[in-house]
């Protein structure tokens, strides 16, 4: 896929339009020979060129890498930091290097790659479940030490299930009494506190 098509595809997805700054740490071993096997003295090396050779978006096809600019490292370097901007969907970037000398640069070496995980959204907060008349299930709430209800439901129970005891609190015009915990479908682990629901009192 060429870059023009890739950009058109990313434009269709709002999440892909969000970019993130990405950093890769590069390490390498300086060469000690010319391409013909002749010893290469360290003094003959004038630097290194680093280029992002390939970018593969998450779940996509490899193409040209424009996410990271080309860079040059000093002759005595054995590593460096690569910084660029990538889409929130993440992907894999590959780099190659070549050694510079007075006669000119040598051939590009093998690729070294790093995968950048996509940005994932946090779950929604402040989730509440209201009592809705006309459905066959209703939420139940934990009874607080002060005799009120918890902020979030603890589970749900079928409408019409009998309750026990006195009214513990009133909520949305309903009288809430203790509910048999064995009849509750819990949101996770059953709480140790009593729970109440807007069910009918037992006979």
Give the tags.
single chain; 203 residues; mainly beta; Immunoglobulin-like; 4-stranded antiparallel beta sheet; 1 helix; 4% helix; rod-shaped; disordered N terminus
Give an overview in words.
There is one protein chain. 4% of the residues lie in helices and 43% in strands. With 203 residues, it is mainly β. It has 2 domains: 19-116, Immunoglobulin-like (Sandwich); 137-197, no CATH class. The chain has a 6-stranded antiparallel sheet, with no helix packed on it. It has a 4-stranded antiparallel sheet with strand order 3-2-5-6, with no helix packed on it. A hairpin with a 5-residue loop joins strand 7 and strand 8. The radius of gyration is 32 Å and the shape is rod-shaped. Residues 1-16 have low confidence and may be disordered.
In short:
The chain is 4% helix and 43% strand. It has 203 residues and is mainly beta.
Kindly estimate the percentage of residues that lie in beta strands according to DSSP.
35-45%
Count of separate DSSP helical elements = 1
Q: Strand order, main sheet: write it out.
A: 9-10-12-7-8-11
Q: What number of domains?
A: 2
Distance between the first and last residues' Cα: 71 Å
Q: What integer is the average pLDDT?
A: 84
Computed CA radius of gyration, to the nearest angstrom: 32 Å
């Amino acid at each position: 896929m060429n870059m023009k098509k890739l950009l058109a595809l990313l434009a269709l997805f709002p999440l892909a339009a969000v970019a993130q700054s990405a950093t890769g740490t590069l390490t390498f071993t300086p060469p000690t020979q010319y391409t013909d096997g002749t010893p290469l003295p360290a003094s003959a090396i004038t630097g290194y060129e680093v280029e992002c050779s390939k970018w593969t978006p998450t779940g996509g096809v490899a193409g040209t890498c424009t996410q990271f600019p080309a860079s040059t490292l000093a002759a005595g370097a054995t590593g460096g930091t690569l910084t660029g901007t990538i889409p929130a969907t993440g992907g894999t970037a590959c780099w190659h290097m070549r050694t510079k000398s007075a006669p000119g640069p040598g051939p590009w070496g093998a690729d070294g790659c790093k995968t950048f995980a996509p940005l994932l959204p946090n779950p929604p907060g402040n989730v509440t479940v209201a009592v809705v008349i006309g459905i066959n299930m209703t939420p139940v709430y934990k009874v607080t030490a002060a005799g009120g209800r918890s902020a979030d439901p603890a589970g749900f129970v079928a409408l019409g299930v009998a309750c026990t005891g006195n009214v513990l609190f009133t909520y949305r015009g309903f009288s809430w009494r203790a509910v048999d915990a064995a009849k509750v479908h819990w949101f996770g682990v059953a709480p140790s506190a009593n729970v109440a629901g807007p069910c009918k009192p037992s006979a």
